[in-house]
Amino acid sequence: MLRTRGERRHSRTPGNASGIIKVRVTSQRILRFTNLSIAILVLLFLFAAYWTAWRPLPKTSGTIRAPISQLAHIDRDGRGVPHIEAAEWKDAIFLQGYVTAQDRMWQMDALRRLAAGELSEVVGKSTLELDREARRLRMRRAAEEHARRMAPEERAIFAEYARGVNHYLEQNRGRYGVEFALLRYDPRPWTIVDSVLAGMQMFLNLTSSWKEDIAKMSMRQKGDAAKIDFLLPARTGAEPSPGSNAWAIAGSRTASGKPILANDPHLEFSLPSTWYLIHLKAPGLNVTGASLPGLPAVIIGHNERIAWGVTNLHFDVQDLYREKLNPQTGQYEYQGKVEQARLENEVIQVKGDTPDRLATWVTRHGPAFITEDKAYFALRWTATEPGGFEYPLLDLNRARNWTEFTAALTRFPGPGQNWTYADVDGNIGYHAAGKLPVRRNFRGDIPMDGSAGEFEWDGYIPFDALPSFYNPAGGVIVTANQNPFPAEYPYGVNGTFAPPYRSRQIRALLSARSGWKPADMLAVQKDVYSGFSQFLASQAVQAYDRKKPSGRELADSVEVLRAWNGQMDKDSPAALIADLLYRELRSAVPERAAPGKGELYSTQMSYAAIERLLRERPSGWFKDWDDTILQELRDAVDAGAKRQGSNVRGWRYGAWNDLTIVNPIAGRLPVIGKYFNVGPNWMSGSSTTVKQTTPRLGPSMRMVVDLSNLDNSLQNITIGESGHVLSRHYADQWSAYYVGNSFPMQFNKVESKSSLEVQPGR
Question: What is the model's pLDDT at position 543?
C-alpha cells in the first residue's frame, strides 16, 4: 500500500529519536563538563587571588605584639595613612618601618635591588643592563662604606627602622604580596645598608648628569663650539626632568594672616607612588607628611611649629675624567706619575641564566668605564665620596624654628635641594643645601683630562655661602628649579637649572592678589599656562603674517595658534601644534651647531636656548629665520596629521600627552594585568607649565600647609598608599589627583577608620 510523504516521515521518527536523544545526552554531558571545568577554573583563580593578593593585605585593626618599649597605636584614616602614636621616638621609627613594609614591601625590595644591581637575580636577563650600570657606579659598595662611617645616633635611627621592617617580614612569612608570589621568591631581611641604597637611588635620579657631559663632548668634536655652548648654557635649563615647585607666602598675603606653604615635587610616575604618607607622634616628635619607602622619618611635611618643602637644586655634582688607563694592568697616569687603579670584580646573578661578570678599574677619580671611541672615563660623584651620606631628617622633623631648621640642613649631604620654610610665628624662608663641589680651573660640563691633576675639587661650598633668604620684603618665596645663584657668585656654578617659565608664572599668580586660602593653592599647582609655548606660537603667527605664503597648508594651523591663550590643555589643538613645532625646532637647531650629531641634543637646556635664538636671531644659523619657522611648522603639521588626521582643529593635545602608569609586575599579566594599571589618561600641562606633566613625569605629591590651622592643610599622592593590588587604597587617590583636588592632611584631629594596638613583646 502506498504511504503519503508525511506517513513516510512519521515512520522514521522512532529510529531518529534514539539518535537525537543520544546526541542530546552527549551535548548535556559536554556542557556539564564544560561548566564544571569553568567553575573549577574560577574557583582556582579565586583561590589564587586570595592566596597571593588578598592574604598579604595588612592587619590594620585589633592587636599585635612587637618588640617595642611600651604600648603604641596605629590609626589609619580614610585614605589608609598611618598615624603612629608611640611612647618614644625609637618605637615610632620602628613602627614606621613596620607599616611601610605592610603596604610597600615589594617597592622597597625593588628599590634596594635596583640601587645594588640585583634585579636580575629575581627578574631575569631583561634587567641586566640596569644591574651592570648600578655595579659600575659602585652603589652597593658606597652604601656599605656609608653605613660603616655612620654616626652612632644616625645608625640608631636606621636600625630601628630596619627592626620594624624585619618584624613585618617575620610575622608574614609566605604572604608578602602578589609580586613576590609571581616572581617566586621571598625578600631577605632589611638592613641599614638597604636604607642607604634606597636613599642613593633617589640621589642618582636627581643628580645624574654625566651622560650629558659625554653628549656635549661628542657634539663639540665635529661641531661649532660657540653654537654648542649657546645651546648648552651652564646657567639655564628646561627639558622634562625631575623637578618641583615650592613656595611660601607671608601672612600679609593670606586670608588668615599666617603663612601658607605649598609643594609639589615632580618625579617620574610610578606604581605604587613614589611617596608614602605617614604621621609620627612620640614625646618630642609630632610630624606628618611624605616619606620615601625604605627611609625613616618624614622628608616633606610639617610638625607642630614649622613646615617645609623641597625642589631639586640641579647643581652639577658629577664630573668625568678621561683617564690614560692601561686596561690590562690598571695603571694610569696622574701628574706625570704612574698610579695603580683598584680592580673590583662583580658577579651578577641572573634568574634562569648564567651569572654575569663585570670587572671595573677604580682610579682616584672613581670607577672607570669605556665609551664607544675606546676611551676610559672615570666618574666622580658626591654620593659616593667619603662622608657623602648623612641623615639629619629626624632632627629636621623636630626643629621648632628657623635656627634649628637650618642647623639640621648643614648636615644634609644631597642631592642638592632648595628648602622652603614657614612657621606658626609668621616667618618664611629659603635655603639651598647639599654638598656642592668647588671646582678648580674648570666648569664641569665636559670631561676633563684626568692625568693633568689640574681639574680637581677643592672641597664643598660652605653652607653659609649657599643661597638663602628669610622674610623677604615681597612676602613671596618661589622655587621651581630656576638658578638661585647670583651672577656675581664667588664659586663656579654649573647645572641644569630650569628657565624661569614656571617660577615666573607662580610668582605672577601669587603676587596678583592677597587673601589667599589653602585651597586656592591647588589652582596654582594645576596651572597649565606655558609662556614658552605661547611665545613660540606668536613667532609662528608673525612669520606667517610677514611672509604671507600662498596656499592653505598652514592657514588653519596659524589661525588656531593666533586665537590661543597659551593653555596646555588636553583638549586644545593649539597646544599640540606648539609642542610639535618646538620638537621640530629642537631637531633642526642642533644640526646647525653639530651636523650629524643633532640627535644627541636631548638636554635640559633646549627651551631657553631656542627662545633666546628666536628673540635674538643671530646670523650664521639660518639664512632666513621666518622661512625656517614656517618650514618647521609645515613639518610639525605633517607630523600631527600622521597621528590625528588632516583637520588641525580636531586635534587634541591630550591624545599626544597620554599617560599610562604600569604596575611593573602585576600590570604585565596576560588578560587581567591592565586592570592593575592606571590609564590611559589624557594629561594637561607640559614641561614649561606650573603643572609640569609629560607621559614620563609629573607632580608626584601635592601638599599645602596652613600655618594658622594645621588641620586646614591638604595633601595627596598620585595613586594610593598601598602597593597591594586588591587593597582599597591601591588607587583611591588617583581620581582626585587627576582633576587637581586634594584631601585633609589630618594632624590634630584624626578621623580613624581602623585602629591597631601594638603591645610590647614578641
Answer: 97
Question: CA-to-CA distance for 624 and 574, rounded, in angstroms?
Answer: 25
Model confidence pLDDT, tens digit, residues 447-485 = 999 999 999 999 999 999 999 999 999 999 999 988 899
SS3 content of the chain, % helix, strand, coil (to 5): 40, 20, 40
Q: Is the peptide bond before 680 cis (omega within 30 degrees of 0)?
A: yes
Phi, psi of 32, deg, nearest 5: -65, -40
For residues 251 and 699, is the Cβ–Cβ distance under 8 A?
Answer: no
DSSP string, 612-656: HHHHH--TTS-S-HHHHHHHHHHHHHHHHHHHH-S-GGG--HHHH
Q: What is the per-residue DSSP string for 300-334?
A: EEE-SSEEEEEEE--B--EEEEEE-B-TTT-EEEE
Q: In whole angstroms, what is the distance from residue 731 CA to residue 80 CA?
A: 11
What H or E segment, with its residue span, contains residue 410?
none
13, three cell numbers:
521518527
SS (H, E, C) 184-234: CCCCCCCCHHHHHHHHHHHHHHHHCCHHHHHHHHHHHHHCCHHHHHHHCCC
How many other β-carbons are positioned within 10 Å of the β-carbon of residue 334? 17
pLDDT tens-digit readout, 56-65:
789 999 999 9
CA atoms within a 13 Å half-sphere pointing along the CA-CB vector of 128: 16
CB hemisphere CA count around 39 (13 angstroms): 6
CA separation for the pair 234, 734 (Å, rounded): 37
The cell numbers describing 761, all together, are 613583646
* Higher per-residue pLDDT: 275 or 56: 275
567 CA to centre of own chain: 24
Given pLDDT bands bounded at 50, 70 and 90, which one contains residue 19?
low
397: its cell numbers: 622633623
What is the predicted pLDDT for the residue at 228? 83
10 Å CB burial of residue 746 (0-12, 13-18, 19+) is buried
